[in-house]
Amino acid sequence: MLVIHGGAGTILKKNMTAEVEKQYRDALAEALRTGHAVLAKGGTSLDAVEATIRVMEDSPLFNAGKGAVFTHEGKNELDASIMEGKTKRAGAVAAVTTIKNPISAARAVMEKTKHVMLIGRGAEAFAKSAGLTIVDPKYFWTERRWKELQDELAAEKKGKPVSEYAVPADKKFGTVGAVALDRDGNLAAGTSTGGTSNKRWGRVGDSPIIGAGTYAENESCAVSATGTGEFFIRWTVAHDIAALVKYKGLSVKDAANEVINRKLKAVDGDGGVIVLDARGNFAMTFNTEGMYRGWIGADGVPHVEIYGEGDN
Predict the structure, then answer these.
(1) Is residue 11, in this structure, part of any structural domain at all?
(2) Which of 41, 59, 142, 179 is 20 to 30 A from 77, comparing alpha carbons?
(3) Spatial distance between the Cα atoms of 285 and 240, rounded to a whole number of angstroms
(4) Domain around 30
(5) CB within 8 Å of 219: residues ≥ 6 apart
(6) How many domains does the chain contain in total?
(7) Does 175 participate in catalysis according to the annotation?
(8) How far is 187 from 193, CA to CA, in rounded Å?
(9) Is the pTM above the cut of 0.70?
(10) What are the residue ranges of helices labelled H in the chain?
C-alpha cells in the first residue's frame, strides 16, 4: 500500500481550470505508479517512499524541489525528511539550496551518517560527497512561484500586514509526502517541501522534523503531514497520531481525526496528514478546503483526489 499527498490548503474546484486539474491528477498518478512499481518488484517501503517523492520533487506543480516557493530574499530553501518503521532510523535536511532531490539527501543522512538532521551548507557539502545530484540554484526557479513572491512583496510595500511567519494569504501548502507498506510488513514515511512563500530568517517548518511532519513505526503507523508547520511542530502532530494508535488503540482514521480536526482546528492550525498502518489501513485527513492526495494498493490502480472528502 502506498499513500501520498501533494499539499493541503485553499484548493477549490472553482479556482482550478480543467487543464491544470488534469496536470495535478496526472502528476499524482505518476507518483503513485512509480512507488507501486518499486513495491511490486519486492522493493522496500523506504525505496518506494523515496522514488515516489522524487517524482513530485521533479514536478514544478508542487512546493518541493523544482516547484519550491521563494524566500523573502528570492531564494529557494528546501527541507525534507524520511523515516523507516522497523528500527525508527531517520534522516533529514533543512534549508538546502543546491540539492536536486532533498528526499534522497535525507535518506543519505540516515544511512551514511550517525546524525538525523543536517542543514544549509553543511548538508549540501555532505550531499555532494555522497554522490547526490547537485544543481545550480537557478534550477528551482519557476515563473509561477516568482510571481507569487513579487505579489507578496508588493502587498508588503502597500502596508498590508504580514504575519511573523509570512504564511501566504491563500494558505496553499504544496508540501509533498508519502507513506508506504511493503510485502515484509515494514512501514516508511517521507516529506519534502519548499516551506512557505516569502519566509524569512532561515525559517524551517515541520517537514524535516521527525515527530512533527514525518514519523514511522511498525507498531503504530507511518505519517506525513502538510500545513502550517509551526502548529505541527508545537503539537508534534505526526508522533501524536502514532501514539494514539499505539497506546489508545485508535484506528488511523480516528487518530488522524482527533489531532487534525479537533486538537489543531481548536487553535486554528490548518493542514492535513496521510497515515498508514502495518495492516494497510490508511487515512487522508485534512481540515482545509482540499488536499492533493492519492493511494494505490496491490491491484496497481491509482486513486487520486483533490477537493473535499469523497470528490472521486
Answers:
(1) yes
(2) 179
(3) 14
(4) 2-296
(5) 85, 246, 278
(6) 1
(7) yes
(8) 21
(9) yes
(10) 18-40, 45-57, 102-112, 120-129, 143-157, 229-234, 237-248, 252-257
